[in-house]
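To the team - zinc ion complex, inputs and output below.
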Amino acid sequence: MTEVERVQNIMRDVNSSKDAVKKLKYDPSTRTLRPASCYDDPDCVKPVTHQDMNLYMNLCAAPEACITISGSFIEQACSRGATYHALFSSKDNGTVFTLLQASKVETTVNGSLIFVKNLDDADVSVVGCDTDSVRVLVQKDRISDLRVKGYINKNGKWQQARVNIVPVKQQLFSRFAGILETNVLSEKHVLIAGLGSGGSAIAVRLAQSGIMNFTGIDHDRFEVGNIARHAAGISDVGRLKINIVRDLIHEKNPYATVKGVAERISWDNIETFRELVKQVDLVICATDNRISKRIMNRLCIEENKVLIVAGAFRRAYGGQVLRVRPGKSLCFQCFLDSLPQQAQDQEITSIEQSEGLAYTDRPVPIEPGLSNDIAPINQMVVKLAIQELLKGTDTTLKSLDEDLTADLYLWLNRRESQTGYEDLEPLEYNVDGITVMRWYGIDISKNPACPECGNFLAELSKRANVTVTKENAEEFTCL
Ligand SMILES: [Zn+2]
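Output:
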């Protein structure tokens, strides 16, 4: 489009506008603009410049039109050539377009990033692709300060739109500055087994904390009965939980890498999971059955990785969080052997048994407060995980290490009838004893004869006062 044509378009728009108070005329020979009523009066002359036209273009573009793009995306695209095609998304048929998205959304439009020598010379109507609805011009020699112009195609005409360049990477965790240097956590890799009501919420919180590498394990698909307690919603019904959680992580942390494994954890495929455990810094087990917890316990002891096991009691009247530090603390098997009754309270091994239970992925009726009752347990898992991952670094969270010295923690949401906590003093009157809604660290040592983390045969020999070997161990196991 020539300059005269552009101005004529502008003039036509102005003159057809209901709000136009004065009709204006443009004189191409003198490049001036003046009201029709004083066309012959030289004092009425207003010279028209590029800036005027750009200002006019800005004003007449749809005022809500806006293009949002991350600075790092432009830099990446620049290295790929003069024109980079990208799918922008818009919501509700609006004129707000964005390239910031964790997964593909339904409403997407074609767009191009076009790298030009000079922004002011580039003609947006002749560059890009025929199918474009959005074009962003970037001045090539000024990538460092990202000088850009954005245009949207509305009713067949290119109109200038505001461009927001968001330094996503820098802004994402800017609120943590001074509390937690998130780059300390960015190299860490966390494995989360079980992505139900516990694992999904834990994953999202860890992504918000700046952890960049995740492996998720869950073979299950999301069902309507999960909605009340899960981080996902009704539009995710039918999807694999690992894919839902990957998207949830990317919504919070688009730069995170997420590996999903949709396999059931069993003794038969333990070696598959060993390979995954080897690659991470920390393992969180939020599954709903004892077998998977025992398998992750064994793998973490053998591979020397810290394991955090989360579990809620029946109907989430309370819960426990266990931290397994191989060689230093008790393990999940020690916990089972020491507190069989409490462990039994968390045991969910069948669909029938899971009816009405809270901390399981199985559909259960919606109960008031259940999700709220699981939240403190998830929160404690996240706190312990971050403290473990920050070990050895100097952050403002360091003092928490002195508070979180126990390896087993207890939380009670209420004084559930028919449990050992039924007769506790109410919170209001109880200052020193156990009450609801407080965390308690439980001092519990490892079992030297633990078949997983202890020396079972040596301990047995000591107790039987004979040498017990693998071959004759069965004769003495009743000891
Ligand atoms: Zn043990």
